[in-house]
């Protein structure tokens, strides 16, 4: 019992430190965060306290108001912190991959399944909605990347629906802060075993591509092994 209490006490400073860091990060992008949180807490508590005096139970309504004020402040803080985080991530390379990694259970993500020399990139997520290809970069250039990867997926897993999303703020694109919501709203057409089978097929393909053996015989003149590849024995 003592060990559990010690572990809990040790974890609390870590949580408080994390909250403090989150607040500092949010305040850089949202200068009014402190005033907003204070206003939400005071107004919520004040409303319930006033109702308590009106009905003759200020203590009970005051306690309830305090708890609800804390809850309301936490909800507002979480939303504004999330908005600030997305604002700082917007336009940064790999931002979509970070969102996909935190999309939740039921999804398997593979970052950078396709990329060009301009660092436009396509990520892949597999879930009950099927395969979702998420592209970030120049809208005109990523369309060709998406088309090629979508064609490749249709050849490998023809019985699985393939969706494509371009992250951005232009017409027909999905904003980074709405990416998770957009994917969660996709219709679920696969069962759990079908999702597992799809992931296994894609994983096996990746293993085959990465473990492809070198042809036997002398190396053609002028040909060089790629860096990080298998060594000749």
UniProtKB/TrEMBL annotation:
Pfam families tied to this protein: DUF4191
Originating species: Streptomyces thermospinosisporus
Keyword Ribosomal protein: no
Source domain of life: Bacteria
Keywords of the record: Membrane, Transmembrane, Transmembrane helix
Signal sequence, renumbered to the chain: none
Segments of this protein annotated with the region Disordered: 210-233
Residue stretches spanning the membrane: 33-53, 59-78
Comp. bias (Low complexity): 219-233
This protein's name: DUF4191 domain-containing protein
């Amino acid at each position: 019992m003592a060990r559990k209490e010690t572990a809990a006490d040790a974890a609390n400073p870590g949580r408080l430190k994390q909250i403090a860091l989150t607040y500092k990060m949010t305040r850089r992008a949202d200068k009014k965060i402190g005033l907003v949180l204070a206003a939400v807490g005071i107004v919520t508590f004040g409303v319930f306290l006033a109702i308590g005096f009106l009905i003759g139970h200020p203590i009970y309504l005051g306690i309830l108001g305090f708890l609800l004020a804390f809850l309301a402040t936490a909800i507002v803080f979480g939303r504004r912190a999330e908005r600030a985080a997305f604002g700082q991530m917007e336009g940064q390379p790999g931002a979509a991959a970070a969102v996909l990694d935190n999309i939740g259970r039921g999804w398997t993500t593979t970052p950078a399944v396709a990329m060009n020399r301009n660092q436009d990139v396509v990520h892949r997520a597999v879930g009950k909605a099927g395969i979702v290809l998420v592209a970030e970069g120049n809208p005109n250039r990523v369309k060709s990347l998406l088309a090629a990867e979508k064609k490749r997926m249709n050849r490998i897993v023809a019985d699985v629906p393939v969706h494509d999303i371009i992250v951005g703020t232009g017409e027909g694109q999905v904003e980074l802060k709405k990416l998770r919501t957009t994917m969660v709203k996709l219709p679920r057409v696969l069962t759990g075993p079908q999702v597992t089978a799809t992931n296994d097929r894609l994983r096996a393909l990746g293993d085959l591509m990465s473990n492809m053996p070198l042809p036997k015989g002398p190396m053609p003149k002028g040909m060089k092994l790629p860096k990080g590849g298998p060594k000749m024995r």
